[in-house]
UniProtKB/TrEMBL annotation:
Organism: Amycolatopsis oliviviridis
Pfam families in the cross-refs: DUF6917 (PF21891)
InterPro entries, alphabetized: DUF6917
Protein name as catalogued: DUF6917 domain-containing protein
The DUF6917 domain, residue ranges: 6-129
């Protein structure tokens, strides 16, 4: 059964750059393949090489990119491409809610765990989540 059709792009602005990584983080993948985000919310962007999308999968190997404020509300789906500035960071793997309702950790599958410093990120860069339908 096909559930997803076209959607608008969710955009945001990087508000804080993070510079650390962990190999023992213990995040837990939420069972949801999508989350609605509202304008003004702030969520954390986290890279991982993990690729298992099973609910509850443990995510240990992570690189922290930073926090982004959502400028344009919408739906972020597993598989969405994530770009910061003009650079493709990876695709949304899923969500960890250990800090919710303060914020979600948006887990981004990448070929390697990268940090905000390694990606030369800076506050005020545009963040985009785009579906590929």
């Amino acid at each position: 059964m096909r559930e997803n059709g076209p959607k608008r792009q969710v955009t945001g602005t990087l508000v804080k750059v993070l510079v650390h990584r962990r190999d023992d983080r213990g995040m837990s993948l939420e069972p949801f393949a999508s989350r609605c985000v509202r304008a003004g919310e702030i969520h954390e962007l986290v890279t991982t090489t993990h690729d298992d999308t099973a609910p509850g999968a443990v995510i240990d190997h992570v690189g922290f990119l930073g926090f982004a404020e959502i400028d344009r509300a919408g739906v972020i789906d597993r598989g969405d491409e994530v770009r910061i500035g003009s650079e493709l960071v990876g695709t949304v793997l899923g969500f960890d809610a250990c800090h919710f309702p303060n914020h979600y950790n948006i887990l981004i599958h990448s070929t390697r765990t990268i940090t905000g410093a390694e990606a030369a990120l800076r506050p005020e860069q545009e963040v985009r989540f785009s579906g590929r339908w």
